[in-house]
Specification:
Number of domains: 2
Radius of gyration: 21 Å
Number of helices: 7
Strand order of the largest sheet: 1-9-2-8-7-3-4-6-5
Structural class: alpha+beta
Strand content: 15-25%
Helix content: 25-40%
Order of helices and strands: EEEEHEEHEEHEHHHH
Oligomer: single chain
């Protein structure tokens, strides 16, 4: 288990990475984002699932295999596609996670990896990570299969002055153009920094920026208004008998 946390004990959004089979869902046929919302005016929950266009039927059938999930429908005219399903009760694993922290959504990948996006105090998130890492299963979880890190949202990623200088020089000299106008060895000679040092500076800066970009994009889901999604008129049942 590996984890990082923001300093202090304010409520913060964290991303917890782990295998799909540790979330209560199997690996989906295509990447999908899932969120549960209270059903307005009635008992139970509304499941919202967001996927790429053209993947609707396979994902609808995948959702339907879970007990309690029925009336799986796809919102018309929206791409990427959004599914809605009625659910009598939260899946047990989801309910367990929600007992520790606020759950924003669950991101499931066709590669077998998943990510919880949750919000809570540092101690709450830490307790959840320990619980996820220690849940008994038939297949013991590996030492690095549960990973946790803070999500900084729309804030600019923080990189060091030297990393920014190396990155700025690399961009100015065409290192990131295709094809490269300059290779790493030439970049090191131009900046007067050793090959190993400039390589590490770039890799660390790239890691921070790419991680921030991916996490902030996923935290922006779903882009349409959720209330409108919950109340859209069901026009197509993807699971006709």
């Amino acid at each position: 288990m590996t984890q990082t946390y923001l300093k202090g004990n304010m409520a913060t959004v964290h991303r917890i990475d782990l295998p799909c089979d540790r979330t209560g869902f199997s690996t989906p046929p295509h990447d999908v984002h899932i969120k549960f919302l209270p059903s307005p005016g009635q008992q139970g929950w509304t499941l919202l699932a967001h996927s790429a266009a053209g993947k609707t039927e396979a994902l609808a059938r995948w959702l339907k295999q879970y007990p309690g999930i029925d009336q799986v429908r796809v919102a018309p005219g929206l791409a990427p596609k959004l599914f809605r399903a009625t659910v009598a009760a939260l899946p047990p694993t989801w309910a367990k996670v929600a007992s520790y922290v606020k759950v924003h959504h669950l991101d499931l990948g066709a590669d077998g990896n998943a990510a919880w996006f949750v919000e809570g105090l540092r101690d709450q998130v830490w307790a959840l990570v320990q619980q996820l890492d220690g849940t008994p299963t038939e297949r013991p979880i590996g030492p690095t299969e549960v990973r946790c890190r803070p999500v900084t949202g729309s804030d600019m990623p923080i990189i060091s002055r030297r990393q920014l200088e190396a990155l700025s020089t690399a961009v100015a000299l065409g290192y990131y153009e295709i094809p490269h106008r300059i290779d790493l060895r030439q970049l090191a000679a131009t900046t007067g920094v050793s090959l190993g040092s400039v390589s590490e500076l770039l890799r660390r800066a790239e890691g921070v920026i790419l991680t921030h970009y991916v996490d902030s994009r996923l935290m922006g889901w779903p882009s349409p208004d959720e209330d409108a999604l919950r109340s859209f008129r069901p026009m197509l049942n993807m699971l006709r008998p």
